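Same chain as my last thread, 236 residues:
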Amino acid sequence: MQRIEGLRIEGLTAGYGATTILRDVSLMAEPGRVTCVMGRNGAGKTTLLRSIMGQTARRTGRILLDEIALQDLPAHEVPRHGIGYVPQGRRLFGPLSVAENLEIGLMTRGKGASTREAVLDLFPRLRDRLTQAAGTLSGGEQQMLALARALCLEPSVLLLDEPTEGLQPSMIQLIRDSITRLKAQGVAIILVEQRVEAVLSIADSVAFMAQGQVAEVVPAMGLTPGAEPFRRYIGV
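reply #2:
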């Protein structure tokens, strides 16, 4: 059997309760590459990430990480196989300190002090705020912490749901730089993003979603903000 490298989604149909959101979705995230997922509101982008994490009801299809089938695992087991997830809205433990939020990430796969130090080297601002409650951080700092917590898993795959939403330009650039460094380290990244310019600066390919399906996957190289796929799948 040919070895599958990275994350492969095959024929995934999933939703919430009796409501089907994703219909026969197939997508590949390869090591050291950024796959950006774009589409209008309601296209199924967030549901796709949640389905990878086991948080939706799967009807059909497979989700494979290398040669490991993830689709039937309980949600709490999925991160233990090396999938980091930064959801939209961050979902931090607000009353807990920065250090405690990081510790939760470390505990997921049994990582220790060396991993924490490597993560803090990526986000030195968090090192100065280890005792501060996560809920009192600025929006940009909270996004840093959400990403840092996910990196405490030492993930081979990272799922990011609109990580730059609501951030000032300097913070957006910092998040982009972090994604670029992770890509260089061989992490497979699926990024849900609405800003066309942000996508073009870091993506290797763009998967356009419409009505719960991946309608088209296009290499990012050569795309411009005015390219026809953006008008077709993103424009109003």
